[in-house]
Predict the structure.
Amino acid sequence: MQHQPTASHFIDGAYIEDAAGEAFDVVYPATGEVIARLHAATPAIIDKALDAAKRAQKEWAAMTGTERGRVLRRAADIMRERNHDLSVLETYDTGKPYQETSVADATSGADALEYFGGLAGSLTGEHIQLGDDFVYTRREPLGVCVGIGAWNYPTQIACWKGAPALACGNAMVFKPSENTPLCALKVAEILMEAGAPAGTYNVVQGLGAVGAALVTDPRVNKVSLTGSVPTGKKVYAAAAEGMRHVTMELGGKSPLVIFDDADLENAVSGAILANFYSTGQVCSNGTRVFVQSGIKEAFLKRLSERLADVKMGDPLDPEVNFGPMVSERQRDIVEGYIAKGVEEGARLVTGGKRVDGDGFFIEATVFADVTDDMTIAREEIFGPVLSVLDFETEEDVLARANATEFGLAAGVFTADLTRAHRMVAGFEAGTCYINTYNLAPVEAPFGGMKMSGVGRENSKAAIEHYSQLKGVYVGMGDVEAPF
Ligand code: NDP
């Protein structure tokens, strides 16, 4: 098979197979063709991975931050050198067009490795003087971290979790989504090639049960999940049993608010980035597009014109800018939501149909006249479905934007500077945008409020989620005791 890896898992610096694990197929979403067949991790494989991580973590943490950083930065260089091959693999794993994967996946992973590699040497505790006595803090790793990934950004998620974990001196066991299991194996290979000790970054395959077994293992100190809210609730609860640290990057139903005074062309571009990149399979997507009445018709007209430039087709063709859904199941889910939108009275402006053939393609879809109570305005669709909702006033739109259990992202387009900052201060969301949307540079914190998660990925904030402080009180005089 075209993309069959050496073996299903990567543990302790080497590929390893255990054919006793349940077999599952990896399908290229553009053609429905099986490109690899892997085995889910057995208890023996999980055990091996956690043992390797536990052993390697001590050796890795004993190195200086500068030494660890050098390894991560070398890995970043290798990823960039191999960007083409890694991007092609990402396209096979996810179906996302090469036009995207070549600029947004291995490159984003490399950014994380480079950024946290750069920070590794400057991680410190602090010194607190108390008269003659003093306290110092040691910034220590957490130990063994488990990463569990969703299927939309398999390389990026593997790196966004792995890079800060390793920078802080932890070891990682990563479980990709079974839909997209191939890319994380390459990340592990590259880290070893860059000089990371065997066992510092391990990949085990499997479905939810493998993730669940990892989360409850006593050797595990931290769990970082990218996934849906229902899975997040389960994983958070399971991690709490062992008082484990968690980062939860979960789903969203984010608002994008476009005022009459916004630059029309930029607002349309923002709405496109907020809904159709990666065929809509982006957690931070601004799928509830609130458009003020004065600009609504012009916005819809221009959006429809711009959508005529969607080029759907072979994702490996560099001219193609719109790929299939990751799986037949996800395509069916999206189709179900589109039917629900029509049934509940939303106006279908464009798209709405699946494309006949073996791939899991569905058209970029826009609904207008959507109301807050409709299913398509309330539930995360995770597909290329944009809903336009009308509004009149700032006060009204802010309340409606926040009227959701989710709180991942939010955006506003307006020419009014003070209104933009007022809106952002009012948004109940962890990742906000003014006059742009969906950019996620490694330097900026990324994560959600409310049901969209806890903790932050990227930026210096991630260091707090992959390390812990030990306070050390140093007595410099006699010890006074009451008796
Ligand atoms: P899921 O929640 O279905 O799965 C996420 C991961 O968790 C998968 O690897 C899955 O394994 C695993 N898993 C499932 N059940 C358990 C369990 N009980 N214990 C441990 N692990 C488990 O999400 P999807 O893969 O369908 O991804 C889409 C979701 O991810 C969307 O809701 C989206 O919003 C969210 N997401 C959030 C992002 C963020 O940063 N906030 C970014 C990207 C996506 P398997 O799939 O193999 O069953």
